Amino acid sequence: MAGGRLPDRAGSRALLVGVGTVREGGFDVLEYTDANLDALRDALCTGPDAVFAADRVRVLRSPERGEWYDELRRAAQETTDLLLFYFVGHGYRHALENVLYLLAPGADLDGDLGGTALRWSLIPDTVGKGKVRRAVFILDCCYSGMAADQHAGSGERGHYVLASVPRTRTQPSEPLPNGRSPFTDAIVTAMARGGAAEAGGLTLHELFGRLDEVMRDWPAPHVTDGWGPRNGSGGDGPDILLTRRVRTGADGGAGAGPGPGPGPSAGAVGGGGVPGEAPAGAAPPGPAVGGTAPTGAAVDGHPVTGTPVTGTAVAGITPDAPAPGPAAGDPPAADPAVTAGGPPGPTGTAPGGSGDPSTTPARPAQDPRPRAVRPVSARPPATARPPVTVRPRAAGPLPAPPVPAGLPNPSNPPIPPNPLLPRARGPRRPGQGCPGPA
């Protein structure tokens, strides 16, 4: 693995923007914007592994469109190496223009949207006009995948777009228990863990792989086009380092993982088995194995007179010896047919299947009486259909029927509605996030 590209602290800038409330349009209030901004700022410029200086990170909370764009242009002019742009808020997909807008608090969806919100394509264009060598754009908003798809394969050198959802998806507005959004929380968690030692830290390429594993099934699993993040890059964008922290073995790096389990005991190697237990396939210890039982010895209460024993005795019965007969004074054995619950069969076999399995019971005799045959009713003959008379069509076009009074005239249809006029948006469910396109 090649080493990552470490930004120049003196020539790098970061602009973090969060908009949790849009006054018009019926958007939900995003309660995780402040927590996202604070967590990401600390991850970028706090600690010895940070790649940004604290005075080079600018945070904007609920800025209007003018202030927002001015700060973006200023950062693009002051940056000579890496510029990181982060946005958390509401994304809006314009249905007619098929473009993505990042909404400011005073965005006017039915009026001057371009003058009250920031069109996505304006952001990379403004950054490209400055002195920036590399740029990273992180979008935590609805429809953010549109920015990644538009930027993929654009050929911009050193640019990288990281989006939270695909181009057709919204995202829930509820925060996690720690107050952050799932996407930004996964980024901060990955930065705290660190990257591979060979790369010198956490690169954007490795970060995207971790986000894809964590958020693949969020918030609903088994969706056709998936949820997971989207990315678009150009040049050496994937090799940019976000932190110099290197994960250790305890955090899941090389050489980490559970060690080998405990091996077999010394007695188990070579077929010896576990001490104190019988080997697999052997019977538990019993009476004598091999040889001849002494005359007059009793096994399980029955006398044995010189019966040879060639197997292992289990529960006092030898497997190779015939079953011991009844002793004097024992009650007579019960009839197996009576025990099975029925009279004996033709060969002494009980109906339940007990007895000699090699003997097949006789089949019962069949009823000699003839079986009644049910007559089949005959189908009535089909009746002949009368011939169809086809009348010749008159030459020339058919006359148009008269139009009743009060109905629209087909020769003068009504004018269809203008598709450029805004449509009324329907009601939304609580927690749905951004409403659909206008």
Strand line-up in the sheet with most strands: 2-1-3-7-8-10
Question: Alpha-carbon distance between the termini?
Answer: 46 Å
Summed over residues and divided by their number, the pLDDT gives a mean of 73
The total count of strands amounts to: 13
What is the alpha-carbon Rg in Å?
43 Å
* Silhouette: extended
Which percent range describes the beta-strand content? 5-15%
Largest sheet, strands/sense/barrel: 6 strands, mixed
Low-confidence stretches are 252-321, 336-355
Secondary-structure element series: EHEHEEEHEHEHEHEHEEEEH
Range of helix content? 10-25%
Q: Count up the helices.
A: 8
What is the SS-derived class?
Answer: alpha/beta
What is the fold's blueprint, element by element?
Layout: E1 13-18, H1 33-45, E2 57-61, H2 65-78, E3 82-88, E4 91-94, E5 99-103, H3 113-116, E6 117-119, H4 122-128, E7 134-140, H5 145-151, E8 159-163, H6 182-193, E9 202-203, H7 204-214, E10 230-234, E11 241-243, E12 297-299, E13 302-304, H8 336-339
Parallel strand pairs: 1-2, 1-3, 3-7, 7-8
Antiparallel strand pairs: 4-5, 5-6, 8-10, 9-11, 12-13
Helix pairs in contact: 1-6, 2-4, 6-7
